[in-house]
Records
---
Amino acid sequence: MAYLNRNPSNAAVPVRIGLIGSGWMGAFHAESIARRIPGAVLAAIADPNLESAEALAGTLGTAKVTGDAADILADPEIDAVVIASPARFHSALIGQAAAAGKHVFCEKPAGLGLEELDAALAAVDDAGVHFQIGFNRRYAADFQAAKKDLAAGIAGEPQLLRSLTRDPGTGSIGHAARIPAWTIFLETLIHDFDTLNWFNEGAEPVEVYAAADALVEPGLRDQGFLDTAVVTIRYSNGAIAVAEANFSALYGYDVRGEVFGSRGMVQAGRSTETAARRFTAEGTSADTPRLNVELFRQAYTDELVDFADEVRARRERTAPAPKSFSLTPGADDARRALAMALACIESVQQGTPVAVNAVPVR
Ligand SMILES: NC(=O)c1ccc[n+]([C@@H]2O[C@H](COP(=O)([O-])OP(=O)(O)OC[C@H]3O[C@@H](n4cnc5c(N)ncnc54)[C@H](O)[C@@H]3O)[C@@H](O)[C@H]2O)c1
């Protein structure tokens, strides 16, 4: 991808990154930073589960391991943090990291409430540090190709937009007891909201109307665990969007986006691992991805390449590599998508459309 600075000439002074949270996503990011990001070093790992942090550090040769993120924030040798703890800690960690002068990459969602997020983003503004949110779909090659077409006006004025996430599954949700009730909006559809906002850039989400249920695991309905949802979104430019999610696609991980407009249509996303197809007497088939890190491996890597480039540019007061269209998801993107997720929860509770509080108060 030509617009990402994969071989920066000034990579001699590495960007030193501390990881906060060494679980599923954190471990993948740690490996990217240690092995796949030019000019970046994984300098430290913090996780209250020390065993997990130590195991990861052992694999990657990371020098510093701690049970407390504060140790990373107090370390003057560390330029930036990647936050991959559970979401309920995100806003506080963003605020603390910014106050300590660290550039911040935070996994989505950036918080669970607008008040806590606004306080964290105010700290980011005050400190003048770079902030990026983990909306990785923007870095997938096909989503970028679609965005480029949209920026060139190929679809004309957007009228209908669509984004969907079908997480791979087995037809049941065995670990659901450990998953917070509104995950489908706060952690899953939040990606779709960002895709729609990015594809419909310049317009604000005005209102959402959400329907959600426990169709994969009806037994969990009483605990409030919803695994299937559809959201209608109205935008300030008149466009109408639909976002949908389900937690158990038996055929694998399926993520797609689409804009239909006055001049045509642009689509992104695929549900197959590669473009290869098998044609036999039984019919046609293709391999499907079972994991997010399979479908979005490149995107998860490139979002951190972009982050390291931005941090390096700020640190050295040089311009980051030029991009031909808006790419890096930042504070306003994080807030806008969270506002939509929170409005969806209210919409399900009330059974009515709900206005989106999309305008930041910072
Ligand atoms: N972008 C994506 O596609 C994607 C995919 C999966 C997860 N995520 C996000 O990544 C985040 C983590 O998810 P996960 O699946 O890796 O969860 P996980 O439970 O596997 O890992 C979370 C880790 O954070 C640690 N932790 C808990 N409190 C902490 C604290 N205060 N400071 C530091 N570490 C702490 C836990 O011990 C655990 O090791 C979530 O916000 C999730 O939404 C994003």
---
Amino acid sequence: MLAAMSPSPSPVEPARIRAARGRDDACPGALRLHTADDGALARVRVPGGLLSSGQALVLADAATALGDGALETTSRGNVQLRGLPADAGAELGARLRAAGLLPSDTHDRVRNIVASPLAGLPGGGPDLRGWVRELDALLQSSEIARALSGRFLFALDDGTGDVAALDADVTLIAQPVGSALLRLGRSADAAPVADPVRAALAAAEAFVGLRSGTWRVCEADPDGALLAGRLGLEPRPLPVLPGTRPAVGAREGALCVGLRFGRATAEQWRLLAAQADELRVTPWRGVVLPGADPAALPALAAAGLRTDPGSAWERATACTGAPGCAKALADVRAEAAAALDATAGPAGRPVHWSGCERRCGHPVGDWVDVLATGDGYRISHQPGNATEVTNQQMAAAVAAARRTT
Ligand code: SF4
């Protein structure tokens, strides 16, 4: 079954659109920087997670020259730079434009497109790079799409169900012979569409006309029925999809490499870029390297990248926490990393550490919730089943909760 994340003002976003949102979605972009406790943060949209090795090097150079020397991948397959000076926007924008990473100032924040990272590779479905490029181009040419929130998400699934499980606003699921199913929000149904990418854009544009101060389809139209009616679609029950995401390690035709909590140093990032002509940033804090040599795995592991599918680090995520976020009650990443390093695999259920009740970046579906309380952590893995532990008790308690069925 499909399983059912203080901004400075944008220099480019028209006042007309800000007013139409009713309230600001506060989502950062490449031009609209977010002011965090560790400096300004820029989020670079990477449609489909697709980066050439040259583009990846541009990002690493920008992180070194302008930021804190590291890169973060997000739950939507985008890339963030942190620790930037408040006035870094102009130089960062120039670097990104020259590399083809900022093709539109006006549509920067709406280019949120995830795609199955193994599409077109052994074990994956059909190649979706054409869909990604077509949808990105159509989005940039749509005046209506400028009004989408920076949180609105398109998912392009190759039929395996991996990104279809990501709670996107508009999901395309590839079917045989070039057709597709279109799913709206969290609907349990999907409709066949003959021109998939144009249908996806039409759904997003229809949402702009439908919503009233909402950012996501699930807020305005929980079962997608209103949008389906406006679009003249006839949804039917979704087929069961495996929904399995690629584990880290070597597989036929690609290497899958994990980043600890989605963060890589510029040196690690350059090492990844040296392995393949194309990098595919996944929504699961990793990178797929098509055509990379499996003999590179030991060097990648020695550099601190994740390559062991049996590690407790698999399916482990954490919010930014202290010192980057003022709301955080703990340095959750450091404490979670220590807990994971102290735990022997296998990993068990997904787990997420949060520095406060907002739980930024938490997974969807079934997961173990580890919440900082100021005195330790509260661990929950079922409704009404919460355990308070000290920092010293946390690693063992999390490991036990992940093994609980
Ligand atoms: S969950 Fe709380 S502490 Fe963590 S990044 Fe979000 S707001 Fe900050």
